[in-house]
Amino acid sequence: MHLALPFSPRRSALGCLLIQMCFIAACGEHAPAAPEPPRSTYPDASTINASKLSLVADGSSTATITVVLRDAAGTAARSSAGSLSFETTVGTVSEAVDHNDGTYTGTFTSPTLIGSAVISAKLNGVLLANTLTLSLIAGSVDVSHSVILVEANARTLPADGLTAGVISVEPRDVNNNPTAEGVGSVTFATTLGTLESVLNAPIGLHSILLKSSARGT
User: Fold this and answer.
1) How many angstroms separate the CA atoms of 152 and 185, rounded?
2) How far is residue 16's CA from residue 25's CA, in Å, rounded to a whole number?
3) Contact in structure between 109 and 57 (CB atoms under 8 Å)
4) Mind listing the pLDDT tens digit for each residue in 137-181?
């Protein structure tokens, strides 16, 4: 059995009103987005990081440098804040890429001398407070660039069989940087006299003592 209800404009209007109210309650309104951090605080709190903190000083090793703009509370920016440029004490850094999300990146290329590189950045010409230091280390040993060092008093020794001079090998990489990378063992040989071990060899050097009781070279 079907029950037919009489048409009622009032009930219809009420029904529409109820439906409209339910729709508003279900959907609601979008919450307003959080405000962008104040840009005036970016230079003091922004951070600089690198994909690696140690590079071989070979003139070709690279690291990606990233600047994240942050306010005093540490909140990261979500959009570009203008022009950013990198500076470095040694090596080179490419032109900064603005990702329009509060981050900027550049590529650092190492020099050929060991040491350290201090990288800084400027936002719209204003220097950021934080900097980044990268370590520049020597590469693997290269025999053709390694050198033999002779102490000044060992260049001419009395042939008494007692007086000794220190002969050392300084391993270097292809860019003449002193290195311990891949050195392994060092073997000495002489055409005259005898060789003895050095108890306290200088750090980074492989040394031997030379004595002779016969004249010659």
Assistant:
1) 25
2) 14
3) no
4) 999 999 999 999 988 777 888 989 899 889 999 999 999 999 988
